[in-house]
Amino acid sequence: MDISVKAPAKINLTLDVLHKRPDGYHDLEMVMTTVDLADRIDLTETSGGIRLESTSGFVPFDDRNLAYRAAALIKERFGIQKGVHILIHKHVPVAAGLAGGSSDAAATLRGLNTMWDLGLSPEELGDLGLALGSDVPFCVRGGTAIARGRGEKLTPLSPPPPCWVVLAKPPHGVSTAEVFQALDMRKIAERPNLEGMLKAIDQGDFPSVCSHLSNVLEGVTMPAYPKVRFLKERMVSFGADGVLMSGSGPTVFGLVKKESVVRRVVNGLRGFCRQVYAVRMLGGLEGSPLE
Ligand code: ATP
């Protein structure tokens, strides 16, 4: 059976780093939501082995690819003899703070769960996927959630008020591991107001969602990559309602209510940044297979 699975990007509406753990990971507290910018993954059953192709040359084609590793994990864990050909139609920018690789891994887990009739629940797929990356459990479910721990302790939320999301990805990638290494916990000046964001989402209060956007990793990535601050300032000046860096960056997103303003922000940014996207928030997809 052939299966095609959607792998949407995520953005962080809030991102807080609570402390560094003895195992080297950080305990996080984030509000994450999926957006309608997605890779598509075609899975075709073969007689054995794993083969991967991608429409983008910027991702590895071997066992360094997270989708490849997801398939290897499923095969090994469930003793599957059959093989799979994975074709990734890559649309989500790489090393961008949008969890593109984690979402490809999550989509591969979901697709193979169906293809090989494994009957695993989203929780079981998420537990399995945590070995591949901290964002994989969230990406398995999609929608909107508070993510705690490394990112695997999920509390589903109702979707944020509908709006446009303008994404601007500077030309360089950022390594998440390097950003966390450079983070000095003593230098975190301002932390997100999680309660305020939760209340804003619960009440469908769009201006309040915008005013509660907050990410402590901006304090690490922005000084190192001045283009991030530049793009934030531009988005604000072109009229975006709320602007933030996603994850460890460098992608900057703007939340915009009015379509006329979306056009102004996108056209205004195009002179400064080649990768600009205007998509819809998908945060209401909780529980959907996203296929
Ligand atoms: P996060 O927000 O989860 O930190 P990110 O969006 O910053 O992730 P990714 O696009 O997931 O970053 O890429 C991070 C690294 O993972 C890249 O160096 C890339 O080579 C590698 N990688 C492995 N598999 C994939 C994949 N399927 N798609 C994109 N990158 C992948």
TrEMBL record:
It comes from Salinithrix halophila. Residues 65-143 form the GHMP kinase N-terminal domain. Belongs to the GHMP kinase family. IspE subfamily. The keyword Transport does not apply. Keywords: ATP-binding, Isoprene biosynthesis, Kinase, Nucleotide-binding, Transferase. Its EC number is 2.7.1.148. The keyword RNA-binding does not apply. GO terms for molecular function: 4-(cytidine 5'-diphospho)-2-C-methyl-D-erythritol kinase activity. Coiled coil: none annotated. Catalyzes the phosphorylation of the position 2 hydroxy group of 4-diphosphocytidyl-2C-methyl-D-erythritol. ATP binds at P93, V94, A95, A96, G97, L98, A99, G100, G101, S102, S103. Pathway: Isoprenoid biosynthesis; isopentenyl diphosphate biosynthesis via DXP pathway; isopentenyl diphosphate from 1-deoxy-D-xylulose 5-phosphate: step 3/6. InterPro entries: GHMP_kinase_C_dom, GHMP_kinase_C_sf, GHMP_kinase_N_dom, IspE, Ribosomal_Su5_D2-typ_SF, Ribsml_uS5_D2-typ_fold_subgr. Residues 197-273 form the GHMP kinase C-terminal domain. It is an enzyme of class 2 (transferase). This is 4-diphosphocytidyl-2-C-methyl-D-erythritol kinase. Pfam families: GHMP_kinases_C (PF08544), GHMP_kinases_N (PF00288). It catalyses: 4-CDP-2-C-methyl-D-erythritol + ATP = 4-CDP-2-C-methyl-D-erythritol 2-phosphate + ADP + H(+). The active site is at K10, D135.
